Amino acid sequence: LGIPADSAASRQVEIQIPSPRIWSPKHPDLYILRASLVVGTETIDEICTQFGIRTVATSGNTVLLNGKPMFFPAVARHEDHYLYGRSIPKSVIFSDLKKVVEVNATLLRTGHYPNHPYTYQIADRLGIAIMEEIPIWWFDEQDAWLKQDIFRHIHEQMWREMAFRDRNRPSILFWSTCNE
Q1: 60 DSSP 8-state letter
Q2: What is the share, in percent, of the chain residues with pLDDT greater than 70?
Q3: Could you tell me if 88 and 116 are in contact, meaning their C-beta atoms sit under 8 angstroms apart?
Q4: CA distance 46 to 34
Q5: What is the distance between the alpha carbons of residues 96 and 103, in angstroms, rounded to a whole number?
Q6: At what angle do helices 90-102 and 117-126 cross, to 10 degrees?
Q7: N or C end: fewer C-beta atoms under 10 angstroms in the chain?
Q8: Neighbour tally for 59: CB within 10 Å
Q9: What is Dmax (Cα atoms) for the chain?
Q10: What is the CA radius of gyration of the chain?
């Protein structure tokens, strides 16, 4: 792949995984993808990411995860802490998510802001499904901010950023448009 200076390019590669293990709360099977940019024998750049394979669909009012009806006992969580505020250490995030699993919840509703990326990474690994909220709940129809948002389409940009950032997280099953 040749890329001239001051430009960008992409390349799509199809990867076959024969008989993949499927991600679910009961079996949070994950894969690691490593992509390397190699020039000659030298690795110039490299990125690794975890991903899972699963499907989400509906049949009437039933949610189907990997083609099977699912029931999700759920809890809500805000990334806010009495000692750390919104700057929660990873150890506390991990402890919080372990508690979600300990109470047999299989779905976590996040707050109306992007959670720390570690939250989603650990949810993938622990098998916690997530309903992620768009950060727009505080606007009401009388609010001048809402009028500006509608005019400038900020809500659409927030939606695109949320979906683009988290589209490959197997734990994120639902994106909520505003407070459930």
Answers
A1: T
A2: 89
A3: yes
A4: 7
A5: 11
A6: 40
A7: N
A8: 9
A9: 61
A10: 19
Lookup: tokens for 67: 């083609």
Half-sphere CA count of 47, side-chain side, radius 13 A: 2
Element (H, E) at 164: helix 154-166
Amino acid at 104: N
Positive/negative CA dihedral, 125, 130, 134, 136: negative
3-class SS at 156?
helix
100 phi and psi, to 5 degrees? -60, -45
> 120: exposed, middle or buried (C-beta count within 10 Å: 0-12, 13-18, 19+)?
buried
**DSSP-assigned letters across all residues of 90-145:** HHHHHHHHHHHHHTT--EEE--SSPPPHHHHHHHHHHT-EEEEEPTTTT--TT-HH
Angle between helices 154-166 and 144-152 (to 10 degrees): 70
Task: Write down the pTM of the prediction.
Answer: 0.83
Residue with more model confidence, 92 or 12: 92
d(CA 157, CA 165): 12
Summarize pLDDT for 57-91 with one digit per residue, the tens: 999 999 999 999 999 999 999 988 899 988 899 99
Backbone angles phi, psi at 39, to 5 degrees: -115, 115
Give the list of residues 6+ apart from residue 10 with CB closer than 8 angstroms, or none: none
| Segment 33-62 mean pLDDT | 93
